[in-house]
Specification:
- The protein is α/β, with parallel strands linked by helices and about 400 residues long.
- Helices cover about 45% and strands about 15% of the residues.
- The strands form two sheets. A seven-stranded parallel beta sheet has the order 3-2-1-4-5-6-7.
- It is globular and about 65 Å long.
Length: about 400
């Protein structure tokens, strides 16, 4: 089985977690796995995976440029512009000229289409776990500036045009949920004839779980001056417009006036960081809210260990209704009380709040109500969710999905 990604795996993300999980589960089950990528450190990969280095780093600007030009330029002109990459791919993919290659991420999906058009590969199977047009649509909904709205509308048009071109020419499409399959078929009816494989977003191998380090937890408590009597809330994720972090801060401002021992740790960074910091300053919460910036993934569980509530406050958006985010699954591993929006995707696995507490996404009132419920009934919920990790590791890992993975090359 041949896989491709332009990712360099230097940072951990939902995309890299999914790739590690799929590749390692297949290799562990005895499948021959060939991976072409920009990765240079193979220590997190199963030792039986055969790696071929692409050695062609692609930054965020280059990704956007490649996809934009592929959307609007004739293939011959695009080939001329990217002739060095094309020649490199011809050499690397020579043994797989008649093979269906599996492409992982959004840029990778486009590269698969490009290589197929140049007859460098037999075909491509796309793993779709993102919807660029909906991300832009969410930005458009929030944006007030007319000039910026025009830019975003053009991005939406471009993303849809590229998606249609890429998806309609794929050999198969892998999606993380039936809801996402139905979403794309409704948007691009021609892809209904293409075989869709449902591969849920789950966790990597159970052995990948990194337990909390008491020394790191103690160090964090000391640095942030967290007392044993404090009740700690934790957010970890990107500070982007759909993250819901501003709503979380508004909710915290309200409940911290009722519960004086509350503290909020916010891990991550992004475009909303300045606004979030300004809100904390204006609300006089600087002694209760701590911004850590980007934090190594291997320290995340130590932050979770000293926290009481783990909050996933995403605003209401189409994408979250179609896919379960890794940060939610990762939070469940902590055996802590987790609060997450009641998205359709989440409700499929969290019926009757079996795994976590829920609230109506984007509703400040609902979030405040759920936070108060969790705080005021904490001993009950702490006991209720004390063994969520066991369920997740036994039922929601890529190792439990190997039959689906091995069906990728079946007709």
């Amino acid at each position: 089985m041949v896989f491709f990604s332009a990712n360099d795996f230097k940072t951990t993300s939902g995309g890299t977690i999914r790739m590690y999980g799929i590749l390692n589960a297949l290799a562990e089950n005895g499948n021959q796995v060939i991976f072409i990528s920009n990765a240079s450190d193979y220590s997190e990969f199963h030792p039986n995976i055969l790696h071929f280095p692409l050695n062609h780093p692609i930054n965020a600007y280059s990704k956007r440029k490649f996809q934009f030009l592929l959307t609007y330029l004739p293939i011959e002109l695009h080939n001329f512009y990217y002739r060095k990459l094309l020649e490199k791919c011809k050499s690397i993919f020579k043994p797989y000229k008649k093979t269906n290659v599996i492409f992982f991420e959004y840029l990778d999906n486009s590269i698969g289409y490009w290589l197929k058009q140049n007859q460098i590969i037999g075909g491509y199977i796309n793993d779709i776990h993102g919807i660029a047009s909906e991300e832009f649509q969410f930005q458009l909904h929030k944006e007030k500036n007319l000039k910026e709205r025009v830019k975003i509308k053009f991005k939406i048009h471009t993303a849809k045009k590229l998606d249609q071109k890429v998806f309609e020419n794929a050999a198969k499409l892998i999606v993380p949920a039936k809801a996402m399959r139905d979403y794309f078929i409704n948007k691009y009816p021609a892809i209904k004839k293409i075989n869709h494989i449902i591969l849920p977003n789950v966790l990597s191998h159970p052995d990948d779980y990194i337990p909390p380090n008491p020394l790191i937890s103690e160090k964090i408590s000391t640095e942030l001056q967290i007392q044993k009597s404090d009740f700690v809330l934790l957010f970890a994720g990107g500070f982007k417009k759909s993250s819901g972090i501003l709503k979380l801060l508004h909710a915290f401002d309200v409940i911290s006036q009722q519960h004086l021992n509350l503290r909020l740790i916010m891990i991550g960074d992004g475009p909303l960081m300045p606004e979030a910091q300004q809100f904390v300053h204006n609300s006089k919460l600087k002694d209760k809210v701590f911004f850590t910036g980007m934090t190594p993934y291997n320290e995340l569980h130590s932050y979770q260990d000293l926290s009481h509530l783990l909050i996933c406050p995403d605003d209401d958006n189409v994408f979250s209704h179609l896919i379960v985010h890794y940060k939610y699954l990762d939070a469940l591993l902590a055996n802590k009380v987790v609060i997450n929006g009641n998205f359709k995707s989440v409700l499929e696995i969290n019926e009757n709040e079996i795994l976590s507490l829920g609230y109506s996404p984007s509703s400040l009132e609902s979030l405040i109500k759920t936070l108060n419920r969790a705080i005021e009934n904490y001993p009950y919920y702490a006991e209720k969710y004390a063994n969520t990790r066991s369920y997740i590791l036994n039922c929601m890992t890529y190792k439990t999905q190997t039959k689906i993975l091995e069906s990728l090359y079946e007709n």
